[in-house]
């Protein structure tokens, strides 16, 4: 067992700051950080004008009106804000940068000021009184800058007395920008790829099959058991929809291997689909119902074509929000699936269920090298649920983690569960040119982590979101952690799960032989 | 003359308030919410949502979680104002209802709570850098208006009394479309004038938050999206087109 030395705390008390410390305003601090513009082709691919159109102003103003008619949240939130200031210190990007335009209300006001100018009595006749302003090129650029500094994490919406959700405003703003030809490279390129090929990476079926076969070999080498990662297998019971990062990135892959082991141990038949090989739905990031719907329909089609009975989602944050909260709306009804299971289900619910039934056994000591904490991913925490009581999204992953490790410690209460801080890379910001923002936005979370490292010797953080995992593996080294200090929940499951050895029948002879050989070698 | 001007203004303000707010409620109600976006964790039943909404409206639950200073000033102001308004019902009913009698002693001092709350909220607009940054002139004027109403009202109670019986007669007259004589007490004229302005701007200002909260999808939706399909009419049309 690895014992981490936390004795330094007594001898060398190091003050770790307050993760929620409010900075002094630094006007314009992030004004120059703009994300790359989309390639005209990608804008067109997903149904938007290739480049900034000539009559952008009229179109943008009309779009505001259209969205206000189509989306109650947008309409109500533009009207109701009283500027009480409750949200001003709630955004991790504000806490990290001090730029006042990263305060939720100020971010909303970038658009609200224009809405007021063209759609309200006060703004039409007394613009100076209510802070209304004309839509100009500068304003458009400001939108592009600051609505791509919002990760749509919804933390502000928890604290607003009217539940105003800046994510809704930011999604709408991006849709307006897209509708005049000002799309963002990162999101639009990915959506175009996912709609054409089936996943965000543009991984074709052949490459996917090869990857999965390699992973199967690794699994068999590790466990001595032929654990499968099936692709496009018709008639399987379960369709697994997982973020494509699970196929190639670390620590995501370790999570995928964990799902495979759980499915194997559960004895269920399952498959991945090459047609819908992506859980993430970037359509949400740009507020595009149509694109979100198109991506969701791929999942439905895959489920029908493969004849599965259930759909299970892998560890992915925004994906789970779209799956849990929107999938039934976007692509439902799913009356062709087995109605005895939640549609869709989260892998955490599946594993949790197995643990509850006593069908999974763990050797917790296999994770003794880690002292762990859990980072609630924003969109899972505030945009979804698990199980059938409110708050299941907090308890399920914690219970699964605790079932397979000995050392678990929560971070400060104000920074977890519904108050969780975003990783800093969500909502379409996980792109290199925004690294400065991502680093600063992650600092409140990193400070909260440093606190539990000081207090409990926490060495590793666990997450259930592909973006969080990628973001932290890049960001953590900047805060004194290793890049592999971020783990998948099912990575811990994978480490600790005790797998039944296959029964000796003809088909499995080889595996058993290999297994006993491996054991012999170990001895 | 003054009595007539105030009467006309009152009728006009009432009309604007009712028509304006009804129109907004109509707009909010008929605008669809295309997706299920309750801020989680959210209640999984309708009853639970009603309970959540009651907590928001009567306890300012989210604000309490967010900022204790804003909460305490907002609470003093809003519930002070509620008691004051209930107390004012006595000027609009011939016989004072029994429960208005009960409210009466609290209502008098609630005026101070209201004023203290307003001063606190206003002070924050100057003293807290973040809130100073987000404040527009209208945000200051709104507080000035409300504080003016509270101060002129308190002045009539504790400094210089107006002929309140005559005021009541005038108000009861307005209810039956008879214009009597309004006392020309300066504090009263200021008080009523500011109230008229407040009524007029209510439907076109941020005061709409009092209505908006009930239509906020993050607070009024049930967490049941996996069990029940939610679809907006325009989205359904999209589906039918294929």
Q: Estimate the global geometry of chain B from the Cα principal axes.
A: globular
How many domain modules of chain A? Answer: 2
- Number of E-type strands of chain A: 7
Average of per-residue pLDDT values of chain A: 93
The biggest beta sheet of chain B is recorded as:
none
Distance between the amino and carboxyl termini of chain A: 20 Å
| Low-confidence runs of at least 5 consecutive residues of chain B | none
Structural class of chain A: mainly alpha
H/E series of chain A: HHHHHHHHHHHHHEHEHEHEHEHHHEHEHH
Q: Cα-atom Rg of chain A, whole angstroms? A: 24 Å
Strand runs of chain B, count: 0
Number of helices of chain B: 12
Largest interface, with counts of residues having CB < 8 Å to the other chain, equals: A-B, 72 and 63 residues
**What is the rounded Rg of chain B?**
22 Å
Main sheet attributes: strand count, strand direction, barrel closure of chain A:
4 strands, parallel
Give the N-to-C terminal Cα separation of chain B: 66 Å
Report the portion of residues of chain A in β strands.
under 5%
Features:
heterodimer, A: 523 residues, mainly alpha, Fumarate Reductase Iron-sulfur Protein, Chain B, domain 2, four-stranded parallel beta sheet, three-stranded parallel beta sheet, 7 strands, 4% strand, disordered N terminus, disordered C terminus, B: 242 residues, 12 helices, globular
In short:
With 523 residues, chain A is mainly alpha-helical.
Report on the structure:
The complex is a heterodimer of chains A (523) and B (242). With 523 residues, chain A is mainly alpha-helical. Chain A has two domains: 144 residues, Fumarate Reductase Iron-sulfur Protein, Chain B, domain 2 (Orthogonal Bundle); 307 residues, no CATH class. In chain A, 49% of the residues lie in helices and 4% in strands. Chain A has 23 helices and seven strands. In chain A, the strands form two sheets. A four-stranded parallel β-sheet of chain A has the order 2-1-3-4. A three-stranded parallel β-sheet of chain A has the order 5-6-7, sandwiched between helices. In chain A, α6 packs across α11, α14 packs across α22 and α15 packs across α16. The longest helix of chain A has 22 residues. Chain B has 242 residues and is mainly alpha-helical. Chain B contains twelve helices and no strands. Chain B is globular and about 70 Å long. Chains A and B meet through α3, α4, α6, α8 and α10 of A and α1, α3, α6, α7 and α10 of B.
């Amino acid at each position: 067992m690895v014992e981490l030395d936390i004795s330094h705390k007594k001898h060398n008390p190091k003050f770790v700051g307050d993760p929620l410390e409010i900075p002094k305003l630094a006007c314009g601090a992030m004004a120059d950080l703009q994300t790359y513009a989309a390639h005209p082709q990608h804008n067109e691919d997903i149904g938007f004008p290739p480049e900034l159109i000539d009559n952008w102003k009229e179109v943008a103003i009309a779009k505001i009106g259209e969205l206000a008619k189509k989306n109650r949240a947008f309409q109500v939130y533009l009207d109701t804000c009283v500027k009480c200031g409750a949200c001003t210190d709630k955004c991790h990007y504000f806490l990290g940068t001090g730029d006042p335009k990263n305060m939720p209300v100020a971010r909303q006001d970038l658009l609200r000021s224009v809405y007021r100018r063209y759609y309200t009595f006060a703004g039409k006749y007394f613009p100076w009184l209510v802070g209304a302003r004309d839509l100009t090129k500068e304003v458009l650029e400001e939108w592009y800058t600051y609505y791509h500094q919002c990760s749509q994490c919804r933390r502000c919406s928890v604290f607003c007395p009217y539940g105003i959700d800046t994510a809704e405003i930011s999604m709408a703003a991006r849709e307006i920008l897209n509708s005049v030809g000002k799309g963002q490279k990162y999101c639009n390129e990915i959506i175009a790829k996912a709609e054409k090929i089936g996943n965000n990476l543009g991984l074709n079926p052949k490459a996917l099959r090869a990857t999965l076969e390699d992973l199967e070999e690794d699994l068999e080498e590790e466990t001595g058991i032929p654990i499968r990662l099936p692709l496009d297998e018709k008639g399987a019971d379960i369709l697994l929809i997982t973020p494509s990062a699970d196929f190639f990135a670390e620590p995501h892959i370790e999570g995928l291997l964990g799902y495979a082991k759980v499915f194997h141990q559960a004895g269920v038949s399952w498959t991945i689909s090459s047609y819908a090989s992506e859980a993430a739905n970037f359509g949400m990031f740009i507020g595009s119902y149509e694109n979100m719907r198109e991506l969701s329909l791929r999942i439905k089609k895959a489920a029908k074509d493969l004849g599965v009975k259930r759909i299970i989602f892998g560890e992915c944050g925004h994906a789970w929000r779209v799956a849990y909260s929107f999938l039934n709306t976007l692509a439902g009804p799913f009356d062709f699936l087995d109605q005895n299971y939640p549609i869709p289900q989260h892998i955490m619910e599946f594993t949790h269920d197995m643990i509850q039934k006593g069908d999974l056994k763990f050797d917790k000591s296999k994770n003794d090298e880690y002292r762990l904490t859990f980072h609630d991913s924003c969109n899972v925490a505030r945009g979804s649920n698990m199980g059938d009581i409110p708050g299941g999204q907090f308890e399920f992953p914690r219970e699964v983690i605790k079932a397979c490790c000995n050392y678990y410690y929560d971070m400060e209460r104000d920074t977890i569960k519904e108050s969780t801080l975003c990783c800093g890379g969500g909502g379409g910001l996980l792109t290199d040119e925004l690294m400065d923002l991502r680093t600063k936005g992650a600092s409140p979370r990193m400070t909260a982590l440093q606190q539990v490292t000081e207090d409990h010797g926490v060495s590793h953080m666990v997450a259930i979101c592909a973006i969080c995992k990628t973001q932290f593996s890049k960001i953590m080294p900047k805060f004194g952690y290793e890049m592999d200090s971020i783990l998948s929940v099912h990575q811990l499951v994978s480490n600790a799960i005790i797998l039944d050895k296959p029964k000796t029948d003809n088909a499995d002879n080889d595996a058993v032989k290999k297994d006993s050989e491996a054991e012999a070698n170990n001895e | 003359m003054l009595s007539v001007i105030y009467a006309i203004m009152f009728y006009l303000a009432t009309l604007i308030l009712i028509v304006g707010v009804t129109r907004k409620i109509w707009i909010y109600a008929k605008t669809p919410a295309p997706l299920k976006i309750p801020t989680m964790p959210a209640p999984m039943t309708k009853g639970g949502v009603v309970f959540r909404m009651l907590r928001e409206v009567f306890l300012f639950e989210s604000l309490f979680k967010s900022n204790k200073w804003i909460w305490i000033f907002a609470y003093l102001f809003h519930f002070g104002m509620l008691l004051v308004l209930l107390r004012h019902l006595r000027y609009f009913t011939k016989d004072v209802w029994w429960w208005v009698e009960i409210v009466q002693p609290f209502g008098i001092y609630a005026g101070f709570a209201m004023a203290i709350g307003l001063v606190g909220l206003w002070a924050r607009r100057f003293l807290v850098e973040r809130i100073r940054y987000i404040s527009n002139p209208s945000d200051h004027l709104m507080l000035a208006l409300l504080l003016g109403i509270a101060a002129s009202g308190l002045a009539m109670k504790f400094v210089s009394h107006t002929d309140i019986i005559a005021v009541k007669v005038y108000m009861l007259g307005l209810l039956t479309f008879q214009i009597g004589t309004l006392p020309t007490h300066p504090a009263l004229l200021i008080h009523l004038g500011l109230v008229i302005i407040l009524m007029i701007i209510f439907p076109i200002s941020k005061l709409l938050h009092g209505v908006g909260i009930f239509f906020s999808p993050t607070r009024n939706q049930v967490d049941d999206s996996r069990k029940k399909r939610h679809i907006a009419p325009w989205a359904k049309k999209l589906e039918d087109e294929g």
